[in-house]
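Exercise 7.
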Amino acid sequence: MKFCPKCNSLLIPTKGGLLCTNCGYKEAAAAAELKEEIKKKKPDVKHGERSIEDTMPTIATECPKCGNKEAYWYTQQTRAGDEPETQFFICKKCAHRWRKY
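Solution. The predicted structure, written as tokens, is:
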């Protein structure tokens, strides 16, 4: 998102670049293309030398698929707010996913 330097309204992408519908300010296509290119880039899953899994907590539990004794885990509210959260597990060895209600 970019805002107009004249009136601080939101600039709308057009074929020729970015346009302010409030005051008529136009930004050249080259700058707009660069901004679109940055938007299209997908974030890298790895941050430095560590992957997302390296930041997740682990728990000693048995994988129902391969029998490995350690898994990553997280919780998520999947039902009504007055119900408990659902626990999700990801096996560190085979990446099998399962959940516990």
